[in-house]
Amino acid sequence: MPTVLYARVSTSEQTLEHQEAQAKAAGFEIDTVIADHGISGITTKLSDRPEGRRLKDILRKGDTLVVRWVDRLGRNYEDVSDTIREFMRRGVIIRTVINGLTFDGATKDPMQQAVRDSLISFMAALSQAQAEANKEAQIAGITHAKTNVLKYLGRKPSFTRDQLQTVQAMLEQQEGTSSIANATGLSRQAVLRIKEDPAKAETMLARWEEARRKQA
């Protein structure tokens, strides 16, 4: 009976080559490799993934399905549990690379079944908890990075794009500093800084506009 490795590749750290090498290092002899690329395990069911559907089509009774961990098989507790139980009902043996777990429907002893089902539930719940923790960490990391970008850019410009354009236009018309300040609502010091180095004022504002655009 064939042994099939199913891999879900969603990040640069979860390459197909890495998951296949891990499986072989754990002693598995893989006959077929099936992989979904760029698919989020948090939002997409196995049956909604192109290669996930193919996996369900080709597995037969007595086949062995190898996965890095049970989180490859679903997006949350319910999906993982249902998928494992579906495969077991079909006579497929599921084995994990991490911790070397085995799930199958061979046992008929009620006590052993209860222990097996409890382990499935625990592993599925643990997978969902890890996925949610990773998602929160990613959000926190993005927020931290955006904050650092803003800090790196220094103090926010004291003028807007409209104000800068008005100052530049009035300077070309030889308007006085006080008149420009009154017209734009800027301080005389701000007008003078723009007048002394218009290129610097433009660069500072452009950098802030780009940073805000990326943050949005």
Broad CATH class of the largest domain: Alpha Beta
Q: How confident is the prediction overall: mean pLDDT?
A: 80
Percent in strands? 5-15%
Describe the global form.
Answer: rod-shaped
Q: How many distinct beta strands?
A: 5
Low-confidence stretches: none
Strand order of the largest sheet: 2-1-3-4-5
CATH superfamily of the largest domain: Resolvase, N-terminal catalytic domain
Order of helices and strands: EHEHEHEEHHHHH
As a percent range, the share of helical residues equals: 55-70%
Q: For the terminal residues, how far apart are their CA atoms?
A: 53 Å
The largest sheet is: 5 strands, mixed
List the helices and strands and how they pair.
Layout (H helix, E strand, L loop, with lengths): L2 E7 L6 H10 L6 E6 L12 H9 L5 E4 L9 H13 L3 E4 L5 E2 L6 H43 L8 H12 L4 H8 L3 H9 L1 H18 L1
Parallel strand pairs: 1-2, 1-3, 3-4
Antiparallel strand pairs: 4-5
Helix pairs in contact: 3-4, 5-6, 6-7, 7-8
Plain-language structure description:
There is one protein chain. With 216 residues, this protein is α/β, with parallel strands linked by helices. Strand 4 and strand 5 form a beta hairpin. The protein folds into two domains: 129 residues, Resolvase, N-terminal catalytic domain (Rossmann fold); 55 residues. The protein is built from eight helices and five strands.
